[in-house]
Design brief:
The chain has 446 residues and is an alpha/beta fold. 19% of the residues lie in helices and 14% in strands. It has one domain: Alkaline Phosphatase, subunit A.
């Protein structure tokens, strides 16, 4: 790999922080096996040794297209505790330059771009770009960039006052939004099915007739393309396991804005589920009215997503996240909630840490390439906000964002790795980011 795995930390002090949450209703999946049903019924009272009996709600908030070096560059939780970021590529010495959250273009971030960047394409890279309609445009946007600290201040505060940052969380897959969001709810975008084909592109939903590229998960990295498919799968999700275990869920998204934020709409048996709420702001109303399900996923609108090329003002994403955090933090749910916030893919931006080529725990199935052709990607920021967060720390445990699924499993009595997909390769359910022995900390509004 061309990427240097050197862990050089830059130290620009910051004093800030934020918070997260999740909840909702039901949904079933007929192919959950009898063995899994039995395991679930037997595990209702079983919790991982580090899971908290205090947690009753988990909220997952997903933003867009940022790396640790880009969004949290120079972040320090204290004068001596700093994130692993760099101000220049340690190999080529190309400096990172300030680029706004409201950049009017988007660096390419499909699977092919990942392969180029991960295999030696960083040095001197000038990314191809897309406009707001996804069409290629001419630009000389260097991918060696960081977000100015005045624009990331809200996120810095979140990770300092009421939460903490993980600077060693990797994107679970090597591609753009739709597959990343499928991984977020199921630990896969296909591939663990008999045909072993995973979606690596796509937008639209199960109502679409347009086909998108898939990768053959049995082939070695970088993988061979398989037969294209409509963006509609039908595998087990974390929501199915929650329902089987007697818990509730809800998924808030704006499918009219960007359908690839609405991963449940790409799962046949969850398509148009009553638990899918096509309005992100409805989450704020529901929490205010005293409604928060056991597990909740909250997606932004495109203009509030931090996705370059879609954001008209750099404050829109941070303000949206702050509104979600404030809704939870100032509600009666705060003391029983954990919010997990992450950015779904790297967005084409530079990050100096080489992605893993092997699982964090265990081994990929024998049918998968070695290393796997679609797992893992570059680092993405992940922040835990909770009254039980280890505030003042930065977590360096190597994991992927699928660890949030492990947290859900551990909290609600589902066997660890119960999906049998990439959730089984995580080191824990974000255990090192919590201290459940501490007295619940009060929320500090943003």
């Amino acid at each position: 790999m061309r990427i240097s795995a050197t862990r050089a930390g830059s130290a620009v002090a910051a004093t800030f922080a934020v918070s997260f949450i999740t909840g909702c209703t039901s949904g079933t999946f007929s192919s959950v096996t009898p063995a899994l049903k039995s395991a679930l019924s037997q595990s209702q009272a079983i919790r991982h040794k580090s899971a908290s009996t205090q947690l009753k709600h988990i909220v997952v908030v997903i933003q867009e297209n940022r790396t640790v070096d880009d969004l949290f560059n120079g972040f320090c939780a204290s004068a001596t505790v700093c994130a692993n970021t760099v101000t220049a590529d340690p190999v080529s010495h190309t400096p990172l330059r300030p680029v706004s959250l409201a950049a009017p273009y988007s660096p390419n971030h499909d699977h092919g771009t990942f392969v180029v960047q991960a295999s030696g394409g960083w040095s001197g890279t000038v990314s191809a770009c897309n406009n707001n309609s996804g069409q290629p445009i001419s630009c000389n946007m260097n991918v060696f960039a960081y977000v100015p600290h005045r624009e990331s201040a809200t996120y810095f505060k979140l990770a300092t006052v009421d939460g903490l940052l993980s600077d060693a969380t990797f994107q679970t897959n090597q591609g753009p939004t739709l597959p990343a969001h499928l991984y977020a709810i199921a630990g896969q975008s296909g591939g663990y099915d008999p045909d072993h084909l995973a979606l690596i592109e796509g937008s639209n939903s199960c109502s679409s007739q347009q086909t998108y590229a898939q990768i053959n998960m049995t082939t070695p990295y970088p993988g061979q393309l398989g037969q294209s498919s409509v963006p509609c799968k039908d595998f087990t999700t974390i929501f199915d396991l929650l329902v089987k275990a007697g818990h509730t869920w809800r998924y808030y998204s704006n499918s009219a804005d960007h359908s690839f934020y609405s991963a449940t709409q790409n799962i046949q048996h969850l398509y148009n589920s009553p638990n899918f709420i096509p309005s992100p702001t409805q989450f704020l109303t529901d929490v205010k009215n005293g409604q928060l399900e056991d597990v909740t996923f909250v997606m932004p609108s495109g203009g509030q997503s931090d996705h370059p090329g879609w954001v008209n003002h750099p404050s829109y994403g941070p303000q949206w996240v702050a509104s979600v955090m404030n809704a939870i933090g100032t509600s009666p749910f705060w003391n029983t909630t954990a919010v997990v916030l992450w950015w779904d893919d790297w967005g084409g931006w530079y990050d100096h840490v080489a992605p893993p080529t092997q699982p964090f725990v265990g081994h990929f199935p024998s049918w998968q390439g070695n290393p796997d052709p679609f797992e893992y990607g570059f680092r993405v920021p992940l922040v835990v906000v909770s009254p039980y967060a280890r505030v003042g720390q930065i977590d360096h445990t190597r994991r992927s964002f699928v660890s949030a699924l492990r947290l859900i499993e551990e909290t609600f009595g589902i066997p660890a790795g119960g999906l049998g997909t990439t959730d089984q390769y995580e080191p824990d359910g974000l255990d090192s980011m919590f201290n459940f022995k501490q007295k619940p900390s009060p929320y500090t509004p943003l």
